[in-house]
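Deviations from the work plan: none for this task. Representative record:
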Amino acid sequence: MPTTLGREIVRSKLPDKYKHYADKVLDKKTTTELMTALAKEDPDAYVDILQDLNNFGQSVVSTYGRDAALPFKDFRVSTEIRHLSEKMKAIVDNVLNDDSLTDAQKEDKIKALGYKYTQKIEDAVFADNDRRQTALASQIKSGSRGKKVQLRQMLFGNMLVKDALNRDIPYLGIEAYANGVSPTAYWVSASSGRKGYYDVQAATGQAGYLGKRVTAATHDTIISEFDCGTKDTGVPFPANSIKNIGAVLLKPFHKHQPGEIVTPQMVAEADDDEMMVLRSPMTCKSSNGVCAMCNGLDESGKFPGVGEYVSMNAARSFVEPLTQSGISSKHVGGVGGKKVEDPEGEDQPTGFRSIERMFTTPSNFPGAAVLAPQDGTITEIRPAPQGGTYVTVGNKTLYCSPYRTMKVKVGDQVYAGDVLTNGVPNPMEVVALKGLGAGRVYFMNKLNDILKAGGAGTDRRNLESFTRAILNKVEITNPDGYEDYLPGDIVNYSTVMADYEPREDSVELPVEQASNKYLEKPVLYYSVGTRITPEVANELKKYDFNKVLVNDNAPSFAAKFMRPAEGLQHDRNWLPRLSGERLREGLFDAARQGITDAYDSPSYVDRIVIEPLKPKTSM
Ligand SMILES: [Zn+2]
């Protein structure tokens, strides 16, 4: 292979082990490979090598000036692209001049053209530049700067753009920025440009703030012991998921026994529709955190040590990318061209907004599914005069917005918390209607999907650990209070469970005879107080939990979804409350309850405040 001076200089700057990289084209993929290998294998040399390469790049640019930077000719629209542009204009003119179409039909056709051609044009523009080896194409290829979409905008045009409400505007921008745009094209793109600009400015702060609250919510969830000893609580997951590796079996799987750690081989021997019931932080019985066995192996392949803040690390694993995705997804904000058909409805928020709602759970939850507020039969579904639909469950009538499509029909029997329409169920409602256990599993799965879609995906087991920390509160509902708590007090579910004695009138029954009674002992992923509906009964029987301890009455507390910032206000010690929000309420409430603090909370807040105050022991 013929070499060049540049190639040899790059080679000279790489350690022997990596010199062969100089023979490759250092595009985005290969450069990333090289950097990753360096960072992993030679972390000490990493910074120096990068700095050296960077200096080299800068000296080339300053020595060669225009030859190495963007030459003006790269901004000229090539003959190929001009032909492409003329063809596109002709197609659009055909639609606009077709007298058989109404205005609305023309708008739909224009949008359809945008969905059909935008990507093809983008690829063609890039291919043309790549063939001519323009500086812009090589910049994009190297991954250093710019995206194909920007190249297309510069040399071809905007095509479809979105308005400030994320709707596609029925106008195809076929004017290259490089040639200057018409007032119409400018006007059309102005609103999306403004939206994109605002979003970038706003997203950084919002994502940072959310990340801070979310991380704080995990403040006291540590690895508390090696094994909580649970034999009957766990979560079923598809057995062929590689995410199961490192977790501990609750139920036997094939010839593998409870307590065994899931290996890649076990996952490989699973059939497509098989499930594995695993121990999970979400169902750990430890009172003061999570046990190592329920947590499973960490990324180093070992059980985490007692005292480790696994949930906080889990939160960090998606908070970082969340902040990044908040910023980067907005960079292309306002660019249309792909038809987005969300089965959950056109009103689904995207990107950061879609994720944020899972934590802030506003009562006006964006894109919310309508849930059955109680058990009953669907007696009526009728159109609402203002648009949308009314649906009646038993004696309650609910309004469903025009974005919702019904998933039930008249005569269907539904249970509290069942989904009646498309959309995303508000986790706060799910927890209140289906109980803490089912709410946790729902929240974890949905958060998993939404983070992935929003570009901030993380390992499922991280989310199990995080969900345990954030969804662990109950509200005392018994008018007489419970133990030392008053009605309305918010308490950790795990704290209540630590010394929970089943009530005397509880009975053990076969699942099918326990209908409508309340669980008195946690089983599978269901928490104490879960009402046995047919759905719960089927799920329990499916995993071979055939007997349950139940009570006719709900317990003295009910599951409560606490927003991340609010959870700290209800901490059982007053010191951690200092790191939450609404300090006045939190501290007054601590004074009212006479909360004392033994300063032994596992919370990192305690560690930060107390550790420096401890007398130094001299050697
Ligand atoms: Zn456990």
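Confidence is low (pLDDT under 50) at residues 329-333.
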